[in-house]
């Protein structure tokens, strides 16, 4: 029997993406933890790792603007992961994984495919890149929903998460995106190893 995978992520968008990835590789998922930002995840990481002795876990954080590469960040925060723990880092943010499927995202945002970056993991701020693309959309609802309103002080529009949830659930192709995002490819490969995982006696 394949055990449900427990999830710990920074926020709602990350949760939707991770559940889509688990569906992609054929793994059931259990509860979702965190959703209070990166610092909260890292503080609780050792507790999650202890729990991974008894059930499979995936923990996902964004690299953001940290100078370390993703593997170094993993080693610094979790040098001795239990076998049930998959601690993954999105380079440089989860939005880069979405930008990596250029065809479907361009269609969803109603923008030219050529406007999307060919190497999304080199974008310094993938979320800002995605917002900039939404601002150029031919669809008014996308512009109104995803782009922050002038003077609001918000980083994203009022329906940003709802639109990304719709995209990830119905259009995003993780297998295609993984061809243009190394951190996504590695995450998928790590998840696949949980299929045969069993807790230690």
CATH topology of the largest domain: Rossmann fold
| Helix-strand string | EHEHEHEHHHHHHH
Calculate Rg over CA atoms.
17 Å
Shape: globular
Q: So what's the CATH class of the largest domain?
A: Alpha Beta
Average pLDDT figure = 96
- Low-pLDDT parts are none
Strand element count: 4
Report the span from N to C terminus: 16 Å
Across the major sheet, the strand order is 2-1-3-4
What does this structure look like?
With 201 residues, the chain is α/β, with parallel strands linked by helices. 46% of the residues lie in helices and 11% in strands. The chain has 2 domains: 103 residues, Rossmann fold; 81 residues, no CATH class. Helix 1 packs parallel to helix 8. It is globular. The chain starts with a strand and ends in a 9-residue tail after the last helix.
Keywords:
201 residues, alpha/beta, Rossmann fold, 2 domains, 11% strand, globular
């Amino acid at each position: 029997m394949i055990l449900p995978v427990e999830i710990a992520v920074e926020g709602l968008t990350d949760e939707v993406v991770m559940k889509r990835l688990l569906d992609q590789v054929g793994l059931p998922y259990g509860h979702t933890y965190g959703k209070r930002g990166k610092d909260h995840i890292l503080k609780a990481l050792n507790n999650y790792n202890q729990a991974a002795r008894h059930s499979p876990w995936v923990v996902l954080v964004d690299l953001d603007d940290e100078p370390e590469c993703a593997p170094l960040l993993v080693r610094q925060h979790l040098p001795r992961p239990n076998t049930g723990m998959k601690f993954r880092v999105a380079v440089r943010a989860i939005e880069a994984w979405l930008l990596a499927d250029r065809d479907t995202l361009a269609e969803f945002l109603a923008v030219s495919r050529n406007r999307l970056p060919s190497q999304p993991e080199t974008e310094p701020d993938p979320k800002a890149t995605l917002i900039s693309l939404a601002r150029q959309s031919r669809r008014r609802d996308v512009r109104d929903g995803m782009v922050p309103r002038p003077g609001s002080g918000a980083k994203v529009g009022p329906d940003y998460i709802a639109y990304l949830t719709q995209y990830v659930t119905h259009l995003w192709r993780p297998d295609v995106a993984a061809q243009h995002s190394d951190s996504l490819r590695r995450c998928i490969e790590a998840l696949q190893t949980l299929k045969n995982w069993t807790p230690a006696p």
